[in-house]
Amino acid sequence: MKAVRFYKNHKEFFIENVEKPTIRNPDEVLVQVKACGICGSDLHLLHGFIKPAFSPIIPGHESSGIIAEVGKNVKKVKPGDHVVISAGISCGKCFFCKNHRENLCEEVGVLGFHCNGAMAEYICVEERNVFKISSHIPFSEAAILADAVSTPFYAIKKIGNFQKDQKIAVLGCGGLGIHAIKIARALEASEIYAFDISDTSLQNARNVGANHTFLSYSIREIVKSLHKKIYFHLILDFTGIYDFVEPMLRLLFSGGKYIIVGLSKGQLQIRIPSIITFRSLSICGSYGIDSETFQELIDFYNIGKISLNESISGQFPLDKINDCVRELENRKNSIIRFILTP
Ligand SMILES: [Zn+2]
Ligand SMILES: [Zn+2]
Description:
Strands 3, 4, 5, 8, 9, 16 and 17 form a seven-stranded mixed β-sheet that branches. A six-stranded parallel β-sheet has the order 12-11-10-13-14-15. The chain has two domains: about 1-150 and about 290-340, Quinone Oxidoreductase, Chain A, domain 1; about 160-285, NAD(P)-binding Rossmann-like Domain (Rossmann fold, 3-Layer(aba) Sandwich). It has ten helices and 17 strands. The chain is globular and about 60 Å long. It is of the alpha/beta class and about 350 residues long. The protein is about 25% helix and about 25% strand. The protein binds zinc ion (2 copies). The site of one zinc ion has 4 residues, from loops.
């Protein structure tokens, strides 16, 4: 079958013919991949920031498709069912997996980084990693539910424990930040402030419901632009730049949460201001999504709470991946998600 492969220390992806995967244990399903999003973290592979478990590896963790075959223990899905494949791969046996918190699994891995991913015609995963969707959902939109939408959904709903009428700040309006804004809008946030270093990303942010947008290259500019004592209930940081944490903490209401979602190369060094105690503030990380919240997201999408049509910036065959990467890297056009259609 045709697949995209990444070789360590190479600055581009390769399109190769590889062996089609087969079901190796009775809990597995074989999925014919119909759509796979290109995420910012796939670009991190090329830049050496994310190290794959082995090389060459098939990347791709935002995917959807059709069940082609099932192992003999599989009950949840059958051949022909349309599914979205979760980005995180869990063990199914540890304390966290048994308590529906698979994203905290002791052995959690990500498709395409820890095992072969979905930028291929077929993929084999265990049954618990697929979620059935109705057949009228476009595969491209289903694919981005797996990360670009689910990661901010979990951060806002589960980690942030979001309540209607809260005021939200979103730092970084790329693929994940944009969906954080959409979700916050759908959940009836009172006001959404968006920050980015790109005008086109801020245009996207306004299009999906941000009330106030700020072009900010540095934390000093952000704080300056907020000199009017604006406070937030939740600050969602997708930038991976830890310099924002300490000064932005001061912009949280009592009980507020600063949620770090963006992956960072740096280390968080912070002098914790005493307001953290007397305002009961929290600094939290948020990673992936658990199965219950993921099902909640699929239901949320199914009832039309969030539309993803305009999140799909283009659909391309596998062999166009390097062209897509180049376009994503120059950030000139307002791209939210490119989808590969194996
Ligand atoms: Zn991703
Ligand atoms: Zn586990």
